Amino acid sequence: MDDERTVRSEVHVVVEDGEIVAIEDGYASGDEVVDATEEVVIPGLVNCHTHMYALPIRGAPLAASPESFYEALVDIWWNVDEAFTERDARLSALGSSVEMLQSGVTTFCDNYSGPNTLPGGLDAVAEGVAQTPIRGMITFETTARNSEAQARDGIAENQRFIDEAEDQYDTVSGHYCLHTLFTNTEDIVAECVDRATDDNRPIQIHLEEGLVDVHESIADYGERPVFALEDMGFFDAEVIAAHCVHSTESEIEVLAEHDVNVAHNPYSNINNAVGIADVETMQAHEMTIGLGDDGWDPDMFETMRSAVGIHKLKQRNPSGFDMATALEWATIGSAAVLGMDDAVGSIEVGKRGDFVTLDLGPNPVLDGSAPYYVVSAASRADVTRTIIDGESVYDQQSGVTGVDDSDMTAVGDASAELWERL
């Protein structure tokens, strides 16, 4: 995933103090060597938009049957938000971090929402993440859906974590988030921008994921969300826009002018039946695009395949989307979305020693087709090791460093108790 998208065989990578210091021809041997000669090695995957607090809802006996995205928010997710405790925040973060490492994800960006855990909810999330070796960006979703006071509590939680708690963690950092435009006000947007720019942190926003965002913006501001946000000065901040499913070509032009990065969440968009983002126009404007799972699927390889499938289907052309692009989005693309492409996302000298080793079976792996083979055939079950900073932090025999069966039992117990409260 370097600029030339190089594929190399019969080489070894040297990592010292967590950093790649050399990539040299030939194999190495010795006690400190990870032997992956029969495997495919790719950079550590980067999940640029997730919701770890979604983990407990898998399998929940929910009675809701939403027929629109907005109904799913009202009938399911906002009830989950209100029911969350600090214990839920910690254990869902722990369980999700384990799943991501098992899937080859070494870096992620999360959005947490549990208003009744404030202040301190982000500390609980960070504690869950920090029990594992994964590195992550975390934030609380600011929302004024109940009141502006609650939104200000969300902004304050992000500021408090950045100012007071972040330094306690080696691998966890904070940023800012607005849930959506339609669940916030112009004053809250302005306050979040001021805070984020003062702290030099990005703001994430769910942008035009569902049509409700578009309709409410036109009703409240007389224009579509991107134009309304531009008028509010939102793009004065560094912005990560998740979804952009209903962004028009003219809106994408505005996003591109402001160097907005896009977190594409294809599996989530399928599952919520909201539509397909116009990534082709984004690519034409040379926008930075990465892949996220939106909390739905811990297997990033399935997320890659979802991207391939929906964009081929949209064009009704089996050659209508370059499969290798999905691997780029899940590595160097997502790293660039998060502003971390100087450290992760590719196997290059000077970057962190983050790798995934894959057993793809008996077929030969050829230089010309290797990326396509990975995207078309790999799954989390094929991940033999996840390596961060040159250290193996997951393998199929030992599991994830720092986590045992009792921890995962606690994750499941907390989920069952949440179901009872719901």
Automatic annotation (TrEMBL):
Listed GO MF terms: hydrolase activity, acting on carbon-nitrogen (but not peptide) bonds
Sequence ranges assigned to domain Amidohydrolase-related in this UniProt record: 40-393
Highest taxon, organism lineage: Archaea
InterPro entries tied to this protein: Amidohydro-rel (IPR006680), Metal-dep_hydrolase_composite (IPR011059), Metal_Hydrolase (IPR032466), MTA/SAH_deaminase (IPR050287)
SUPFAM superfamilies listed in its UniProt record: Composite domain of metallo-dependent hydrolases, Metallo-dependent hydrolases
Keywords (A to Z) from UniProt: Hydrolase, Plasmid
KW Transcription (keyword) present: no
Protein name: N-ethylammeline chlorohydrolase
Organism lineage: Archaea, Methanobacteriati, Methanobacteriota, Stenosarchaea group, Halobacteria
Gene that specifies this protein: trzA1
